[in-house]
Design goal:
Layout (H helix, E strand, L loop, with lengths): L5 H29 L4 H20 L6 H26 L6 H6 L7 H20 L1 H6 L8 H33 L21 H18 L9 H11 L4 H8 L5 H7 L21
Helix pairs in contact: 1-2, 1-5, 2-3, 2-5, 3-7, 3-8, 7-8, 8-9
Length: 281
């Protein structure tokens, strides 16, 4: 690992871990006061913004300055936007059914149960997924074509996330404003949602593969590849797409939407044939 400040990098992990734990500790306290643990979803993006900024400061005498700043800024913009979006969306809502189901089993003390299964678990995940930010800040070598491709992929991801979230929010507001006796579509299937059932999740994956490419241009950034793989797995097979669709599939019109619309990658809608029952993954 020529040119990589291993000792300084290891020291920086202590600081990024401390920031992660501190943010989650504050969130846990706020969750107790609020009486709901889905507040952790709002802080999820801020964890990466905090880790990115901490890695930027900790690597100030090491690594390539351009890469350090690009990683910190991209992670910060993504994290803050996500936090604002989820925070605004959760105003006035109760506990997330996912957490209610998760916390039905486990430790007898409900607070200990929540601390371990919600806050500590997500803090650990964030610390691992943020590997490109932490390693990339100490990677030497100028920014090149691989990093530029990574930034472009990050931009694609941000467009899908931001536009997809905005389209869904407008749809929800229009539906809420209509009279109760008005027949409305029960599925959002226009805009980006016409080409993928989860433009926000697809955008999220693009963001993290983009950040990985920025870090992976020089050794040892390539070793952080498990981070975007893990994030993509969570989005498609973990708490993202799969969990959401278990509840959405009971909604009128959603099975048909699944049959004609790609589950993740943006693709042209499929024309439904009579009696079709296969869904697009």
């Amino acid at each position: 690992m020529t040119g990589f400040a291993t000792g300084a990098f290891v020291d920086s992990l202590v600081w990024t871990a401390a920031v992660t734990v501190a943010l989650m500790a504050v969130t846990f306290a706020f969750g107790i006061v609020a009486g709901r643990h889905n507040v952790v979803d709002t802080v999820w993006g801020l964890l990466f913004a905090g880790i990115g900024c901490t890695a930027l400061v900790a690597s100030r005498d090491h690594g390539d300055p351009g890469r350090r700043w690009v990683l910190a800024v991209l992670a910060g913009v993504w994290g803050v936007r996500l936090a604002v979006h989820i925070g605004r969306r959760s105003v006035g809502r109760g506990e997330d059914p996912r957490y209610e189901k998760l916390l039905r089993t486990g430790h007898a003390d409900p607070l200990v149960n929540a601390l371990v299964k919600v806050y500590a678990a997500q803090a650990a995940l964030a610390f691992v997924i943020a590997a490109p930010l932490q390693v990339g800040a100490f990677v030497t070598g100028d920014l090149g074509y691989v990093a530029y491709v990574g930034v472009a992929l990050w931009c694609v991801g941000m467009v899908f996330e931001t536009v997809g979230d905005a389209q869904l929010e407008r749809y929800r507001r229009r539906k809420k404003a209509q009279p109760p006796d008005t027949v409305t579509a029960s599925v959002m299937d226009t805009g980006l949602w016409r080409f993928t059932r989860h433009p926000n999740y697809f955008g999220d994956a693009c963001v993290w593969w983009g950040l990985f490419l920025v870090a992976a241009e020089h050794w040892p950034g390539i070793l952080t590849v498990p981070a975007p793989i893990l994030m993509t797995y969570l989005l498609t097979m973990g708490s993202g797409k799969r969990t959401l669709e278990r509840s959405m599939v009971t909604r009128p019109g959603y099975p048909a939407y699944m049959r004609r619309t790609s589950g993740f990658l943006p693709l042209p809608p499929r024309k439904e044939s009579a009696g079709a029952d296969a869904t697009r993954r």
